[in-house]
Structures are given as structure tokens and as C-alpha cells.
Amino acid sequence: MCYIVGNKTSHDYLTWPEAEKKCQRIGNNGHLVSIHSQSQQNFIRSLQRRRESIPMWIGLNDLGTEANYKWTDESTYNYSNWASGQPDNYFRKEDCIHLVVGTGTWNDNNCHENKYSYICKAYNGMCIYAPLFIFKILHII
To answer: How far apart are the C-alpha atoms of 68 and 126, rounded to whole Å?
Structure first.
């Protein structure tokens, strides 16, 4: 399994749909990352901190039905780490989830107006995808 972290400069940030498409182009069932436990959350948070704590898209969203959260990789939504007061669907326009700067907690935000970095997860033994920041994980956390 590989975790691929998007570039850290703001001119390389993507909207949530753009980030998900980029993750899918990696191949090997690549998607924005899904998180299913506190240990996975801690690992993903460590990746965010390596990028100077910038906001990062993850694969959770409620694009289909409000408050019915789903992961882009179709895995079960069985863990959450929402920031205080979240999700709030501010102005009824927030359907995509990102990691909050400084805490790594989750916030819903506008999928199409905001551009952030991102974290992909792919099931790829080779983990070759330059120039992104790549971590090869031998075991599922």
C-alpha cells in the first residue's frame, strides 16, 4: 500500500474533485485516503505534519445525500475525527472533507471553490509516482 501526499506549494493545490481524479490516475485502485481507526488517523496526521501542517483533502464526502458520508474508495464509514462543531455544511455548500491545519481533525468544506493539498492511498507495491511525496507501507495500519 502507498500513501501519496500532494505538493506543498499553494499553486499546486487542487479542488476536491481534481484531487480525487489525480489519485485515480495513479492506478491500482488509487483514491483520496480513507481513515478507519485512530492509528490510521495518527499516521495520516504525521504525513500532514511533514508538509508543514497544510490543509489536505481526504476521501470522505456527502455529495450524494446530505449527512450520509461515504469514502471514495467505497470502504465503510466506521470512524470519524470531526473538529468541534463539524460537520456544519456552512451555507449548504460543504460536502467534501479535509484535515484541519494544526489539529488534523476533520472539517467539511466546499468541494469546488477551495483548493488544498491532498493524500492518496493506492494498493501499489511499486509506489512510483514522482514528483509527489510517497510513503510505501508494507502492512495495513
So the answer is: 34
Residues 32-81: pLDDT tens digits?
Answer: 999 999 999 999 999 888 877 689 999 999 999 999 999 999 999 999 99
Instruction: Evaluate whether residue 29 is within a structural domain.
Output: yes
What is the domain-level CATH number for residue 111?
Answer: 3.10.100.10
Q: Which amino acid is at 136?
A: K
Domain that holds residue 94: 2-129
53, 101 contact by CB (below 8 A): yes
In a domain, 55, yes or no: yes
Alpha-carbon distance of 71 to 76, in angstroms, equals 7
All three cell numbers of 37, joined, read 481507526
The C-alpha atoms of residue 80 and residue 60 are separated, in whole angstroms, by 10
Nearest to 41 by CA among 3, 94, 86: 3
Distance CA 96, CA 64 (A): 11
